[in-house]
Amino acid sequence: MKKRISTLLTLLLAMSLLPVTAIARTNDKPHTHTICAKADCADNHEVKTWTAWDSTDALPNEAGYYYLTNDIITENGVNVIDGVYICLNGHIIQSVGKGTVTLTATPACDNCGLTDCTDTVHKFSEREDGLWVLNENSGDKTVMGAAIIGSMLIASDNMFEMYNINAVGDDGAGIFLYSRGNVLLENCMLAGNNGSHALNAISPVELRDCTIFKNRCDSAVRVSSEFKIGGAITICGNVNADGKSSNLELREGRTVTIAEPLSEYSNICVSTEAVPTIGNPINITGANGEDYSAYFHSDNEDYKIINGENNVVQLTEVNPKTYPYTINSLKLVSAGGGEYDEIPTNTGFIVDMDVTKIAERSGQDYFIVAAYDDGTLVSLNYIKADLPTGTSFSCGVNMPKSDTPITNIKAFVWDALGTAAPLAQSAEI
Known about the structure:
With 429 residues, this protein is mostly beta strands.
């Protein structure tokens, strides 16, 4: 009997010297599912076997498919490297260090991503500044599934995929996309973030079945690159620090590509960097096979959504504004005073703009003539003047012969070059 006990003790002591992770992984049941965690996946994803990852403060540093067995809490942030796919398995990844980034996908990340396969419930409380803070015991904001708490920088060279993940509780830059590859967010929710943006898309991204709401940011989603959407998309219910609607902001003339049909539950509130006017609407989307305008709404009550030619969703003014200036005419003339019927192609010419100031306004304003080649700015000239109310004047802007074709001329009156607030209905030739 003593010999048996001695043998058992020897075995237990030997096992105690093994790494804990080895024991845990030996006893774990196989963890298998597609990367999107759908049983009926239609994206040609293969079922993968995911290896247990037991760390509490770091992510894997070798390519493979892993699932978390613990929350990841770190003071210095964590990094997703090339070839690593992680199932959060209902857990959270959180950075508790001041100013740190929770998760970074580096430029060396050619193919990598995150997913979740659970309905785990996490609870948050809302601070006065709109930030959601993890409070598992008594929080009244419920998040279903895994959560990343803090900032994310995604800069993949090829593809970064994120499925079924909640990005919650960041008080900085939110998800910042600076990628040379493609980023796909599917069935993700971004909520309870504050700061600049919940999603800053300065590189290509596609959203499928995503919800972005309850964020308090300068703009919840800022788009200055290719932006695709499909399925059930909600980008509404976000406000800035002043409590004004601030949802999807299209910058630099960018539009939304509807890559897959939108579902009837979609709700997208939008604003543009450019200012729409009557007769000069701003395109929100490209051409579509059907009318999607009912799913879009303006963040500014002065503007409304319309369905344009080829089902292009557009933003336009609700009613013409009363401007302090009126552009009476815009003409093209030669140095000798003769008028051209169309833009000359083999000689210089003068653009003559006739303007009347109809309302009181103090200070110098900008009278601008811009030349374009199929929407690309070729040249911009301006005159600054402070006119007495009720007076008219004509200004001539010289357009020298150019090697670049000029397809259209536009005239504006602005308060300044930086703000570009319109002071007159624009005119165009």
